[in-house]
Description:
The protein is 46% helix and 12% strand. It has 14 helices and eight strands. The radius of gyration is 19 Å and the shape is globular. The mean pLDDT is 94.
Amino acid sequence: MAKQVLISDPTLRDGNHAVRHQLGREAFAAYCKAAEAAGVPIVEVGHGNGLGASSLLVGEASLTDEEILAVAREHLRTTRLAIHVIPGFCTIKKDLSRAVELGVDLFRVASHCTEADITDRHIAYARAQGKEAWGVLMMSHMASPAVLLEEAKKMESYGAEAIVIMDSAGAYFPDDVRERIATLVNGLSIPVGFHGHNNLGMSVINSVAAVEEGASIIDGTIRGFGAGAGNTQLEVLVAVFQRMGVETGIDLYKILDAADIAEKAFNPVAPTISPLSIVSGLAGVFSGFAKPVARAAEEYQVDPRDIFFALGKRNAVAGQESLIIEVARDLAAQKG
Length: 336
């Protein structure tokens, strides 16, 4: 088991999902200051779906990418600034090049768990600019350990300096995490990380399981702010790791202070495990679909739980929000 873990904090990116990407300048500034004071080593910022993603389809952010990066860079002096990059949303010429100019330190380049091929150019570009780049495999429960390793090796060959697997739907149990993390740790020559969601209440214990199998990077967000039922709660994670004797470099009291600051600055109620979030986890569907599913269910007068399970059967992934309406219509037609 790793005795030291690098914490990466996507509160100001994944947490943006919880408020429909409407975090304002003051919220970004307040949390960046609090996270840096606590010694959080990496803070990830942006639209919930990453750089270049703000749109009518997945939601328009209240701030532009440039505004977000500028305010974060202003208030992060020792903490590294990270962004989430999904090729397709993010272009190299328009988005990545500007992010480099604005001082981003770490580029987390992501794809669906079986589509690592699309990350080649983005990872290579970040590395060519002298920046750190990680590969991120989203919706990782949809691939076997062997397939995840195959995709991770592609990212490693492109120049990725670490691999993070995301439990985007909050579908994992600890044994699922153990099997996948162990396979990656044993099969790669670069660090391995885990990003949990809390749909089934497993995010903290899943993160612990990841570390016990050799993961050295763990994601967590303050108060659990994130899509759907939320992410692994950062301040709980720090406390648990401290109890286990795992070093994070984060000051416990100051991260607890940051949790209070964040609650006031962000203003929404912290994510909870709602009945719909549980169904999302069971169906293996992206947590961020909860709100659009609820809206579609109301519009078409169908059960939102049926929508989630139908999306699961279709292997729906983030970015396929239009499929929610299609499924709702089909269910309504079946009702007659």
